[in-house]
Amino acid sequence: MKYIAEVFFILTMLLLSTTTIFASEQNNVLKGTALKPGDCIGIVAPASGMDGMDISMAINKLQSWGYKVKLSPNLYQQAGYLAGEDIQRAADLNNFFADDEVDAILCLRGGYGSERILDLLDYELIKQHPKLLIGYSDITALHMALWQKCHMTSAHGAMVIDINDSSLNYTDEQLRHGLSSTNVSEDGLFPLPYNQKLEVLNAGVAEGTLIGGNLSVIAALCGTPYALDSKDCILFLEEVGEDSYAIDRMMWQLWQSGLLKNVKGMVIGNLRHCEPTSPKQYDYSVRQVFEQYAKLMQVPVIYNFPVGHGSINGFLPLGVKAKINADNTNPQLIIEENYAQN
């Protein structure tokens, strides 16, 4: 009897130990390091290609901020609408994560193609070399994969295509601050452009892990190994060039898939060239579509957030704890956790 009790005790302790380790691994979020003067930014093209683009002004500006710049070997490749073959684009990204000379990875542009390389990425290698990856639009596929497969933070922010040699603007300043900092501000309050007013579709307060990006890409990855686990999250969405019915269709897909049913709150960013912007006969406006889903979801929702396609594009960390204060008088998004290490 004593022997049985001892065996039971040992098995119980092993089970508790395994459970503790598993929980620790689940809660362990990988983070890159905030850049210092002299650090190196790697430029990579995981999706569409150069198409004759001149990036010399963008490189000059990054260098003027005190950073070295390294171009991926296949950056100037072109294969149809892609920046080279899938294996080339995946190799560039894998190699930049493995390259100790590269401290952060900035994407050239979006377009299309990131989803095609997700199966070719070496997630075990990436876990060993956490770095901040910055981009938006089609790069949403990479943000989702890095979170689902590596539990790694990343940043939804301006890309090389958005940087020019003009004086600093909100988007530039956000990128510059985001690269060199560990949070969006000292108190975590997301800084808004001058005169930018957030709107509230559903009032309330919510906390959760901030994830998301481009609506079309998130919908396209439903049912794949890279689909977002939205449990207890704050979901960020932005879009470009889609009619209200198409947005409705994608949102309904997210609802039916269960993704929208698990979120704690939602942040709606830039909706550039999404029409109609005001109600019309026999049509819903884009805002009306989101109002319907805010009502259906019954969670706090803020609207008109300055992140996504367009000239005003803030630096939004993903994979961090955040809080929505959807107060009709002063709606706010607060980033409660550092997205990078010192």
UniProtKB/TrEMBL annotation:
Instruction: Kindly state which keywords UniProt assigns to this record, in alphabetical order.
Output: Carboxypeptidase, Hydrolase, Protease, Serine protease
The record ties this protein, via PANTHER family, to: MURAMOYLTETRAPEPTIDE CARBOXYPEPTIDASE (PTHR30237), MUREIN TETRAPEPTIDE CARBOXYPEPTIDASE (PTHR30237:SF2)
Q: Which CDD domains has this protein been placed in?
A: Peptidase_S66
Q: Which domain of life is it from?
A: Bacteria
A GO term for molecular function: serine-type peptidase activity
Q: Which residues form the active site?
A: 137, 238, 309
**Family the UniProt entry places it in:** Belongs to the peptidase S66 family.
Q: Name one GO biological process term.
A: proteolysis
Q: Which InterPro entries match?
A: Carboxypeptidase_A_C_sf, Class_I_gatase-like, LdcA_N, Peptidase_S66_N, Peptidase_S66C, S66_fam
Q: Which Pfam families match?
A: Peptidase_S66 (PF02016), Peptidase_S66C (PF17676)
The residues covered by the LD-carboxypeptidase N-terminal domain are 41-157
Principal EC category: hydrolase
According to UniProt, the name of this protein is Murein tetrapeptide carboxypeptidase
Q: Quote the EC number.
A: 3.4.17.13
Q: Which organism is it from?
A: Megamonas hypermegale
UniProt domain LD-carboxypeptidase C-terminal: residue ranges: 207-324
